[in-house]
Amino acid sequence: MGFRYLLLAAAIWVGYLIVRHLLRQRLTKPKTTSSQKSVNSVQCKYCGLHLPKEEAVRDGEDHFCNAEHRDAARKQK
């Protein structure tokens, strides 16, 4: 008779753990928001650094992270 109560208590405890896990998982799920902006990025032709297109230095079709790299690439040509 005592064994039945032990099994019942174990089943209730396991059920509690499962429900608690599912609730935590549901509450901590990352929410996607539309407020995140995507940034158009380009790669510096000289060093390979990726940076936002608005911050890049352009030389024709090529993009550079700064004027020094643009000048160094011109000298290599």
How many individual β-strands?
A: 4
From the alpha-carbon coordinates, what is the Rg to the nearest angstrom? Answer: 29 Å
**Numbering strands along the chain, what is their spatial order in the largest sheet?**
1-2
Secondary structure: helix percent: 40-55%
Beta percentage is 15-25%
Apparent shape = rod-shaped
Transmembrane segments: 6-23
Organism: endosymbiont of Escarpia spicata
Keywords: Membrane, Transmembrane, Transmembrane helix
Protein name: Preprotein translocase subunit YajC
Give a verbal description of the structure.
- The chain crosses the membrane at residues 6-23.
- The chain has 77 residues and is α+β, with helices and mostly antiparallel strands.
- It folds into 2 domains: 1-29; 41-76, no CATH class.
- Helix content is 47%, strand content 16%.
- The chain is built from 2 helices and 4 strands; from the N terminus they run H-E-E-E-E-H.
- It has helices at 2-27, 67-76, and strands at 41-43, 50-52, 57-59, 62-64.
- The strands form 2 sheets. Strands 1-2 form a two-stranded antiparallel sheet.
- A hairpin with a 6-residue loop joins strand 1 and strand 2.
- The longest helix is centred in the N-terminal third of the chain and has 26 residues, at 2-27.
- The chain is rod-shaped and about 90 Å long.
- The mean pLDDT is 89.
Question: What's the short version?
Answer:
InterPro entries: PP0621-like. The protein has 77 residues and is α+β, with helices and mostly antiparallel strands.
Secondary structure topology:
Elements (H helix, E strand, L loop, with lengths): L1 H26 L13 E3 L6 E3 L4 E3 L2 E3 L2 H10 L1
Antiparallel strand pairs: 1-2, 3-4
